[in-house]
Amino acid sequence: MHARALVFAASLAALSGLHPAAQAALFSDDEARKAILDLRGRVQLMQQETTQRLDELTRQVTDLNGRVERIDQTARGQLELQSQLETLRQEVARLRGQLEVQSHELATAQRQLGDQLATVDTRIKKFEPVAAEIDGRSITVDQNEKRAFDNALQMFRAGDYRGALAAFQSFRSQYPDSPYLPGVLFWLGSSQFALKDYKGAIASQQALLARYPDNPRAPDALFNVGYAQAESGDRKAARATLEQVVAKYPDSQAAQRAREQIASLPAR
Predict the structure, then answer these.
(1) For the segment 141-168, what is each residue's pLDDT rounded down to a tens digit?
(2) What is the CA radius of gyration of the chain?
């Protein structure tokens, strides 16, 4: 608007600057009036063009100001975004460090737990039942029970009859319902026989026969009774027992040995 006023003032100054005589001459006729009108038209046209140019410049300046503001806002936004990105990077680094620490702690805990489980498993296995073959049957027994029987039998086979006797007696007291008990009674009687305790041997084998008459060791147990009777001097009882072996278990190896033993006994 200020620019427009300047243009208008300049136009008026141009008109007022004419010499009075010239002005009188100018307005003295129609041509002068036409010239004035033409001049005024030019001034108005100049004003319009100037106004349009000023409007265009104003629009361009406004547009530039808007673009500058947007650029400034974008720059500020980028700075804020950069700051946020840096903050996020620091947070990621912190979390990554925590993750590494926790991963290490987890690995350590898993290793310790694995060691503890292995220890517990080893301890449990010491008490877990184990499979054993007893008198032709597969049976699950306590590890200590199996170990006690195997150790006692190993003593007998090594010729340590007194040690075997004590071990079998201890086993019988500790495991009175063990599936090994028929074998314990049998080998207990055999240990007693080896130590020339014929009465004890007869009692042990008869206990086996009374409690487990269908046990696979029954034929041999009955034979051992007859043999112990013979060794103790009771030949009559020995013959009767051995004949019972032959009659009751005719196809067994014990029956074959009984026949041989009967033949060696004095006639009645």
Answers:
(1) 999 999 999 999 999 999 999 999 999 9
(2) 64
